[in-house]
Amino acid sequence: MRKLPKIELHCHLDGSVRAETILDIARKENLELPSYNINDIKKLVQVPIDCTSLDEYLKKFDLANKVMQTKESIKRVTFELVEDAANENVKYIEIRFAPMLHMKKGLSIKEVIQSVLKGMNQACEKYEIKANLILGCMRNMSVEDAELVVKEGKEFLGKGVVAIDLCGPEVEGFATKYKKAIESARSYGYRVTIHAGEAASGKNVIDAINLLGAERIGHGINIKDMKEAYDLVKRTNVTLEMCPTSNLHTKAIDKISDYPFFNFYKDDLSVTLNTDNRTVSDVDLTNEISLVKDNFNMSEEDYKRIYLNSVDATFADEDTKMWLKSLI
């Protein structure tokens, strides 16, 4: 499984920081931590099995964000994420992050993006992997903040930045609030992926597609309970970025046998497998693929088809897509 070529389309930078790196950066920058014991740090950044909700899950990002406030630390964390992905034969990864979370020590949005790009590009030069960036707008921040991220990030389109995302806590009906910001993003040339249908109903998925023009949906599992949303996703061929272990942790599902991924796949929905947060959920992509294979009898032919679906769903250029297809 580890040797298979892989594609990761839904991976949060601040949810994938090595615990050892958090400790090392904190020591170098004289940052105060609750503990300087690596086992304690792992407990603080990894979600427990009895996590009760998405909101509780999101609290595990606090420590990582604390050490991602300088150019060097942001670059390092990004390099290491791409390195970790390359080491399990991920050939293409789209990293998402919210620039506004990394400005507490005075960095500008552009400086944050540049730092991520530097780390990403250094890793791509060293390893056989390609990568792009998705800029996240936090739904617990203002509309003005979202518009600022869109505006400041547009100069990096075609230089590593490919898309915009809305992420963070999910409430019903959030899409209307951000319609103008996402319309602006589309007009600049951003591709669009939206977190929806994870901690709220399938109606958010409908709005993300119809109001925001989402080409991909982060998670989207709750379309299983709303025929209108399900039919829309199938009819429009919008891709679902699905993350099994994370969805177990956030209680989007109660047990893996309830996970709708394989049912979606068999009904010809465009689905992809992803980690969401490698550190917070303590997983890699090999783990997620194995989880589905072991529980739903996924065959090699199934995996090949899912891989090729993932290639088509990337926001990569055509040369990269051709290269990815040649690997399977």
UniProtKB/TrEMBL annotation:
Which residues does Zn(2+) bind?
H10, H12, H195, D276
As cofactor, the record names: Zn(2+)
Residues holding substrate: H12, D14, G168
One Pfam short name: A_deaminase
Per UniProt, residues of the Adenosine deaminase domain are 5-327
EC number(s): the record gives: 3.5.4.4
Cofactor comment text = Binds 1 zinc ion per subunit.
* Active site: residue positions: E198 (proton donor)
* Entry-linked InterPro entries: A_deaminase, A_deaminase_dom, Ado/ade_deaminase, Metal_Hydrolase
User: Which CDD domains does the record cross-reference, listed alphabetically?
Assistant: ADA
Positions bearing the site annotation: Important for catalytic activity: H219
Membrane found in the keyword field? no
Q: Which Gene3D superfamilies match?
A: Metal-dependent hydrolases
Q: What Gene Ontology molecular function terms does this protein carry?
A: hydrolase activity
Sorted UniProt keywords: Hydrolase, Metal-binding, Nucleotide metabolism, Zinc
Please state which protein family the record places this protein in: Belongs to the metallo-dependent hydrolases superfamily. Adenosine and AMP deaminases family. Adenosine deaminase subfamily.
Role of this protein: Catalyzes the hydrolytic deamination of adenosine and 2-deoxyadenosine.
Give the protein's recorded name: Adenosine deaminase
What is this protein's gene name? Answer: add
